[in-house]
């Protein structure tokens, strides 16, 4: 299928699909004219990439662990390995720190508002 077809099926822009290709996340075949030719399995691959991005993972992390992604009866999940677990734990720690910082900023903002 062409990039426009894959974009329509997955809800991902052609630009994003080209970015995934640039990052090594998708590797489409090329036809005789040089057009990208995506397989049906790329629909699942794009869904896996989208799931990982929406969970806060960057494309470099996704590239390292894309082979750990599985799609089963209950959706997309990661098959854990120690390195992946460490990366996910580090991401969760960073998110916790950001949340704490936002709470503190909100507390200071409320203090300014109530002081008037």
TrEMBL record:
<dbReference type="InterPro" id="IPR047057">
    <property type="entry name" value="MerR_fam"/>
</dbReference>
<keyword id="KW-0238">DNA-binding</keyword>
<feature type="coiled-coil region">
    <location>
        <begin position="81"/>
        <end position="108"/>
    </location>
</feature>
<protein>
    <recommendedName>
        <fullName>HTH merR-type domain-containing protein</fullName>
    </recommendedName>
</protein>
<dbReference type="InterPro" id="IPR009061">
    <property type="entry name" value="DNA-bd_dom_put_sf"/>
</dbReference>
<dbReference type="Pfam" id="PF13411">
    <property type="entry name" value="MerR_1"/>
</dbReference>
<keyword id="KW-0175">Coiled coil</keyword>
<feature type="domain" description="HTH merR-type">
    <location>
        <begin position="1"/>
        <end position="68"/>
    </location>
</feature>
<dbReference type="InterPro" id="IPR000551">
    <property type="entry name" value="MerR-type_HTH_dom"/>
</dbReference>
């Amino acid at each position: 299928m062409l990039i426009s077809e894959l974009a329509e099926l997955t809800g991902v822009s052609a630009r994003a699909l080209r970015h995934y290709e640039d990052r090594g996340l998708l590797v489409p075949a090329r036809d005789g004219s040089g057009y990208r030719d995506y397989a049906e399995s790329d629909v699942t691959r794009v869904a896996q990439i989208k799931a990982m991005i929406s969970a806060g993972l960057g494309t470099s992390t996704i590239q390292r662990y894309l082979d750990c992604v599985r799609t089963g009866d209950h959706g997309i999940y990661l098959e854990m390995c120690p390195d992946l677990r460490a990366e996910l734990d580090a991401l969760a720690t960073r998110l916790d720190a950001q949340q704490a910082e936002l709470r503190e900023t909100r507390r200071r903002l409320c203090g300014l508002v109530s002081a008037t």
